[in-house]
């Protein structure tokens, strides 16, 4: 049996950075980009850290510690997936960030596993959409 410490950050290795898309930060972003995402709730602690650094960082570019990171949403999603027992051991999916959308590619053993991944992803501040059309669900 694997130790929890051994599996921690497993999802960080499943991010495909060379296929992630992002918009560079600029002054032309509108306030609508600062909406929290699918759950309509903010990660207040993380946003406070981000605001200390100066201009607000858009949620899709907000890193794990509130810093500017063009892959921040993907990294925060990976962290959230690692923290959930029902998703931490899934290693057959990769994730990509396309703006404020998280795209999954790969295979899962059953629909419940995919549902858990999607539900966790939707809880991350800044996620506006989750794409799973490139995920195969093994038939039971």
From TrEMBL:
Record's protein name: BON domain-containing protein
Organism: Leptolyngbya iicbica LK
